[in-house]
Amino acid sequence: MTLAAETSLHSDVREFLSRPGRLLIDGQWVDAASGRTFSTEDPATGGVLVEVAHGEAEDIDRAVRAARKAFEDSPWSRMKANQRERLIWRIGDLLTERAEVFGQLESLDNGKSAGIAQVVDVGWAADVFRYYAGWATKIEGKTVNVSMPFAPEGAQFHAYTLREPLGVCGQIVPWNFPLLMAAWKIAPALAAGNTVVLKPAEQTPLTALLLGELFEEAGFPPGVVNIVTGFGDAGAALSAHNDVDKVAFTGSTEVGKLIVQAAGGNLKKVSLELGGKSPNVVFADADFDIAVPGSLNAWLFNHGQSCVAGTRLFVEDRIFDKFTQAVADAASQVKIGPGLDPTSQLGPLVSKEQFDKVSRYLSEGLADGARALTGGKRFGDDGYFIEPTVFVDVKPEFSIVREEIFGPVVAALPFNAEEGVTAAANQSDFGLAAGIWTRDISKAHRTARSLRAGSVWINQYNGFDTAMPFGGFKQSGWGRELGAESVELYTQTKAVNVAL
Ligand code: NAP
Ligand code: MG
Asked: CA nearest 180: which of 200, 195, 158?
C-alpha cells in the first residue's frame, strides 16, 4: 500500500484496506467465480490501495438471481412501506456516523479532497437516503372516474391505479462521485420496493463496498442490494441480462448508447445520465465579485470531472478580458495537492487514462491556436495532477469547445447579444446544465427558457438539491433522477378496474 498521507488515516480506513474487496451477493461477501482480482489505486501517487474481486458475467448472473429471489419471495417482498422507510433511513444515519471514514476512502480511491468528500459526497448521500426513506410511505395510485362507454346503462365500476416496483434494477455508476451516484440510484429503487445489482466503476469500487456493509448492519434482508465490482464487461452483462427489469446508468454518452442496445433483448426500462458540455453565461450586468468565484467553481469543482461542469464560459464582450483574467487569476491561486492534505484545494485526476485524455485535449487546444491565460500543463512529476486551465482565443469548432474533457479546463467565448448567446450555447449535442449570471431578472428567466438544458442555475452554479429533478436534454440522457421523478423511474403503473 502506497498512500499519500498514510499517517492521517482513520483506523477504520486502514482496517478496510487491509483486506481484499469482495462481491456482495445474496448477503454474503464472496470472491469472483473466476477467483480473479484487480487493483484499485491512489491517483495521488499511482500506488496500489487494495485488491478487489474482478466480477464478470457469471457473477452478475449470480447477483441477478439473488436479487430476483429477494424481490419475488423474501422478507423484503412482504415488508410494509414503513419498515422499508426505517431501514433506508438507517443507511442515512450510518453514513452520517461514518462520514469521516467514507470521506477518506473516497479521497484515496478517487483523488478528491477528503474534507469536501465528507461534506458533499457523503453528507449528500446520507440526505438522499433520508429523502427517499420518506418516499417509501408516499407512493400512491389514484382513483379514476371512468365512463366505460361500452358498458350497459347503469353499470358501475371502481377503477384505480397502483404504483408498483419494477423488480430487479441493474445500476451502473461512474468514478467521479462514486458513493453519491450509488446513493442517487439505490435509495429511490429501495423506497419503491425494488431490488438492486450495483456495478461500481473499476477506478473507484471502494466506497460502494463499504456502503454494502451498511446494508447488512442496518438489517436489510439478503439479496436486496448486491454489489459486483468489475469492468465494462460486467456492466454490459448487467445491461443485457434478460432477468433484469431496469438498467440505470451514469457515465459517458458513448457507453450510454451501448446500454440502450444491450437493453433491447428484453426491452428492460432504461434511464441514462450522460455527458455534458454545459454553457455558463455571464452578462455584463452580473455581480462581478460573485460571478467570478461562481464561474470558477462551475468548471473546476471535482477537478472538472463533473457531468454538469460549466466548461463553455460565455462572457459578454464588454467585460470579457477583465472577467476571464479574474477567473484565471483565481484559478492560478488554487492550491494543488493530494486529497488527504487538508490544505489542498485541487487533487489529482482519477486515473492515468483520464490524465492522458485531458493532457491530449490541452495539446490539441494549443495546437488549434487557443491561448491559455493560466495552466495548460501537468502539475508536478508524480500522480495525475493537471493545472487549472483557462483557454481564450477559441473557436466553436475546436475540440476543447465541443467535446467533454472531464478535467480542469474551461474555454471562454465572448458574446454581444442575448439572442446570440443562447443560440451559441445551444449549439451542442449535449443539454445537461447551464448557468446564467445577471442582475436583470427578466433577462435571467428569458435566458433560462431559451437554453436547452435539464438544469439551469441562476446566479449560482451546481445548484443541486435532492428534491429537484436532474437529467439531460438531447444526448445528455433519458429520464430524471432525484426528486419525485426518480420514484417514477423505479415504479410502474397498474390500472385496476372492478365491475361493481
Ligand atoms: P464509462 O465507460 O461510461 O463508465 C461508466 C460506467 O459504465 C462504469 O461503471 C463502467 O465500468 C461501465 N461500463 C463501461 N463499459 C460498459 C458497457 N459496455 N456496458 C455497461 N457498462 C459499461 O466512463 P469512463 O470510461 O469511466 O470515462 C470516460 C469518459 O466518460 C470520461 O472521460 C468522461 O468524459 C465521461 N464520464 C461522464 C460521466 C458523467 O457523469 N456523465 C461520468 C464518468 C465519465 P468500468 O469503469 O469498469 O469501465
Ligand atoms: Mg481508484
From this structure: 200
pLDDT digits (tens, 9 = 90+) for 103-129: 999 999 999 999 999 999 999 999 999
Q: For 16-32, what is the HEC assignment? A: HHCCCECEEECCEEECC
Does ligand 1 have an atom closer than 6 angstroms to the CB of 479?
no
Q: How many beta carbons lie within 10 A of that of residue 290, not counting itself? A: 12
Q: Is the CB of 407 under 6 A from ligand 1?
A: no
As annotated, the active-site residues are 273
Give yes or no for residue 481 CB within 6 A of ligand 1.
no
C-beta of residue 434 within 8 angstroms of C-beta of residue 417: no
Ligand nearest to the CA of 49: 2
Mean per-residue pLDDT of the chain: 97
- CA 395 – ligand 1 centroid, Å: 28
| Closest ligand by atom to 351 CA | 2
* Separation in Å, CA 460 to CA 119, 290, 397: 19, 8, 28
Q: Phi and psi of 270, rounded to 5°?
A: -130, 130
Task: Give me ligand 1 centre to Cα 66, in Å.
Answer: 25
State if pTM tops 0.90: yes
What lies within 8 Å, CB to CB, of 322 at 6+ separation is none
* Torsion angle (degrees, nearest 10) of CA 398, 403, 409, 411: 40
**What are the residue ranges in the chain where pLDDT is below 50?**
1-5
What is the distance in A from the centroid of ligand 1 to the CA of 309? 16
Provide the grid cell at 323: 472577467
**Residue 16 CB less than 6 A away from ligand 1:** no
